[in-house]
Amino acid sequence: MTMRHSLRLMSPPTLLILVLLGFEVIGGGRASRLNRWESGVRMPTEKDDAEDFDGEVGTRWAVLVAGSSGYGNYRHQADICHAYQLLKKDGLKEENIVVFMYDDIANNELNPRPGIIINHPQGSDVYAGVPKVPFNFLSIDNMDIEYSLPYRIMVLM
User: Fold this and answer.
1) 111 with 132: CB under 8 angstroms?
2) Which GO terms describe its molecular function (predicted)?
3) Is the Cα torsion angle 89, 92, 94, 98 positive or negative in sign?
């Protein structure tokens, strides 16, 4: 009578979990430093050194871009209009918000609410109040930039 012994130390899921835990314990291959982020890459609100408080007050700008066009990409323009409304509501000056987007969905024949763009099914109009200035991005030269920058939104034609 021959006995076969099958030697099985651990099941594959258990072995995988132990390997992953071991990898995490040794640091997961990351460089071993206390601060994982580069010291020069911080948000403006993360000022912790005395040299960061030099008395300079900057101007906050927002550049919003929706590069797609067509009613099939409705959400891209709707999200940009919604972001514009949120930035304005949070106190960013209108003249410091620059928006590049096509303007082809608000009055699109497929839009069930002509002239209105919503961000979610029960949402209100996020298109209203967003200023529009026709602008052809491909025809930029130095003169165009000087005249276009004061505008708050540039609708790609």
Assistant:
1) no
2) cysteine-type endopeptidase activity
3) negative
Strand ordering across the sheet containing 62-66: 62-66, 97-102, 153-156, 134-135
In one-letter notation, the amino acid at residue 151 is Y
How many angstroms separate the Cα of 5 from the Cα of each of 8, 14, 120, 124? 9, 21, 63, 70
Residues 25-52 have pLDDT tens digits of 666 555 445 555 555 556 666 665 555 5
> Rounded distance, CA 135 to CA 150, Å?
12
Cα three-residue angle 36-42-45, rounded to 5 degrees? 130
The single-letter DSSP state of residue 50 is G
pLDDT tens digit string along 100-126? 888 899 999 999 999 999 998 888 999
| CA-based radius of gyration for the chain | 27
DSSP calls for 52-117? G-SS------EEEEE---SGGGHHHHHHHHHHHHHHHHTT--GGGEEEEEE--STT-TT-SSTT--
pTM above 0.85, yes or no: no
